[in-house]
Amino acid sequence: STENNILSIKNIEVIYDHVILVLKGVSLDVPKGGIVALLGANGAGKTTTIKSISNILKTERGEVTKGSITFEGEQIQDLSPTELVKKGVVQVMEGRHCFEHLTVEENLLTGAYIRKDGRKAIAEDLEKVYTYFPRLKERRKSQAGYTSGGEQQMVAVGRALMAKPKLILLDEPSMGLAPQLVEEIFEIVKSLNEKEGVTFLLAEQNVSVALRYATYGYILENGRVVMDGEAKALSENEDVKEFYLGLS
Ligand code: ATP
Asked: Which segments constitute the ABC transporter domain (predicted)?
């Protein structure tokens, strides 16, 4: 039912530069407490869908021209990215986007910029981030630009956690990472989901990993949802196996 969905997208259309129609009526639901995967090839529209939710399309001359996006039952299309973070909707961008000249710890603290609950609460959450990412604790004083790709992805997720998110929008977490690290990142997503109750919507080209960790999946092709279902059912679907998992 609708009340169980923390996020609901109905039939959105997105146009770049006034003429390039990229999302052609995308609908999707994210249940509270779920891990939902947005799957599809390069250029299918995954990133655009994520950016529509976090309302950062404008900087790329993109615009949602139809449809609705609701978070906890409330329309959110007119909220600024900062207002969305305050509500608990936090995006982790593709390509990680650390502040390279700040230390790992300074990067994490920037995630708490909207909070008003004081230094003690923020310090406690920083320690909590370090329990999920012990590697970041070891590297807390290092300049982020000199840490590895995997560590920077951890910084990006840790930074999102510092904002006390209800929903994390994670764009292509596996990008550029060795298989071992991809697994490590997804394991952390899973434990944050289970232990902290964070809901995830993640865009991923690595369909096989995403379906192992997600509860539900949507497959986008050319700006449309062409298939959706429970992750297990999708991973056993013959078309998904052939076109996305390279089996059969
Ligand atoms: P990727 O894995 O490459 O991020 P994606 O599934 O996330 O792929 P999008 O980045 O959402 O796909 O891109 C969807 C389509 O929109 C592509 O055809 C892309 O060329 C186009 N597009 C993306 N950004 C813009 C932009 N700023 N202006 C014009 N077209 C764009």
From this structure: 7-247
List the residue whose alpha carbon is closest to atom 9 of ligand 1. 45
Least confident of 72-81, 90-99, 133-142: 90-99
State pTM to two decimals: 0.95
Four-CA torsion 98, 53, 84, 177, nearest 10 degrees: -20
Output the CA 44–ligand 1 centroid distance in Å: 7
Residue with tokens 């497959």: 219
ipTM: 0.94
Which residue from 14, 19, 21, 22 has its CB within 8 A of the most atoms of ligand 1, so it is best to mutate? 22
